Amino acid sequence: MTTLYQSAEQFTSFTDSKKAKFGAMLEGGKAQARNFFTRLQDELPKDKPLNTKKMEFDVRDNRIILRDGNGNGDKQEWFLHKNALSQMVTKTDVLTGGVADKMFDCFSKDEEGNIEPWGQELLLHNLRTIYSKTERERVLIRIVQTPADKEQGRPGEIRGFLSDRYRRLNSAPIIEAFAAAAKKFDCVPLVNHPKFRATYYTDIKIGFSMFLPMVFEPVPGEVIVIGIMVESSDYGAGALTVRLICQRITCTNLAIMRDELRKVHLGTRLSEDINFSRETYESDTKTMALAVADITNALINPERINRQIATIQAAASEKVDAQKLYQDLRRNGFLLKADAESVSRLYAEADVELMPPGNTLWRASNALSLFANTLEEDGHTDRALDVRHAAGFVLDEFEKKNEKKITA
Question: Exposure pattern of 277-308 as b/e (b: 16+ CB <10 Å)?
Fold first, then answer.
């Protein structure tokens, strides 16, 4: 086979049955991508500097309301997303997100069984007091009002409560630049499972992926697709990253490799001149979009892909003490104690349809990915993402330690 990629079978050379399966993955990916970009445009954040001394708090529909008590009689109000509340209380250096959640849910019952949710008012009292005394006079809030909010007359939602030094980036043009760069290599969006997808969209985090239009078989019987993913958060919940990803076709085990671009959102203090800050905002976004496109070009080229294939080939023959590996990941913060125990059981028990055979590092990485699938099935999307990053980390560390052997 003449191809620039090792162990690759081109889409055009597939049998009819393979073409049908790949075609279904492609159609699912196209639909997912359309939905992704529609939501991206519908939920563009609106930025507003806020004077902390004029903030007012209330509770409605069992959610915290923040008002801008600017004194001109035209008060604006918004719901507080859990992420923004956590950022808000963390900035006080008095409370934490976990304490605030517990406080908000505290209640008592009287003799007749009526519920008194006293914790809500206690939390509001703390916020009012702390922010009336704080030296921090200004923050940046990022607000989203969805089409459904507008249709039903609901106020927007504050999803980010950030420092006024936060360097604002708009994910939409960055991901568009990423997609355009990946298309130059004929990459396409793919879906081969309704739930375990390499593209995701939560209220505060997003990830978009595209794959090369071919399958790879680094070792006999191990058929995978390789792609690239950009992840970001417009609400201070994660850095902008670009990573290679690989996914096992049979069971959708997904590993997310090391970050090739990490940009901390720091910048100059926002100007009071809204027009100027908008220009700065758009300039920073354009700069990062170009950087993301450059990284995409560097990652998806044949040399880098072939090195990833070689890493998987070597990992598939590398003997491993899986239990020790998972305990090391737990000690380094990649896994919870219960997670490490669950992954160890999967490694020992799962059959070869769900995971590669043998006592190898490749199987150990796949056990992490398989466990991530179970987490996502139970609704723990954020933890599932963390574990998929751990699966990629295992392969990345192996590649770094064995670089000479792998690239020989």
Answer: beebbeebbeebbebbbebbeebbeeeebbeb
Spatial separation of the C-alpha atoms in residues 326 and 334, rounded to whole Å? 9
pLDDT at 269 over 50: no
> Which two structure tokens, joined as six digits, stand for 385?
């993402």
Mean pLDDT on 341-348 = 93
Q: Alpha-carbon distance 405 to 395, whole Å? A: 14
Phi first, then psi, for residue 357 (nearest 5°) are: -75, 170
Which ranges constitute the DSSP H helices of 43-138?
Answer: 82-90, 97-105, 118-133
pTM above threshold 0.85: yes
Q: List pLDDT tens digits, range 206-264.
A: 999 999 999 999 998 889 999 999 999 999 998 899 999 999 987 788 889 988 775 44
Q: Give all strands (DSSP E) within 221-296, no chain letters.
A: 222-232, 241-248, 254-256
Residues of the chain with CATH 2.40.50: 46-163
In three-state secondary structure terms, 256 is: strand
Helix axes 361-377, 381-401, angle to 10 degrees: 170
Handedness of CA 391, 392, 393, 397 (dihedral sign): positive
**CB atoms inside a 10 Å sphere around CB 336:** 13
| pLDDT for the residue numbered 372 | 94
DSSP designation for 130:
H
Looking at the domain 46-163, which fold is it? OB fold (Dihydrolipoamide Acetyltransferase, E2P) (2.40.50)
Nearest to 84 by CA among 278, 234, 305: 234
Q: Amino acid identity, residue 104?
A: F
- The whole-angstrom separation of Cα 162 and Cα 141 is 6
Q: Which three-class secondary structure state does DSSP give residue 263?
A: strand
Each residue of 130-164: pLDDT tens digit?
A: 888 887 788 899 999 999 998 988 889 999 999 87
Q: What is the pLDDT of residue 146?
A: 92
Q: What is the DSSP letter of 163?
A: E
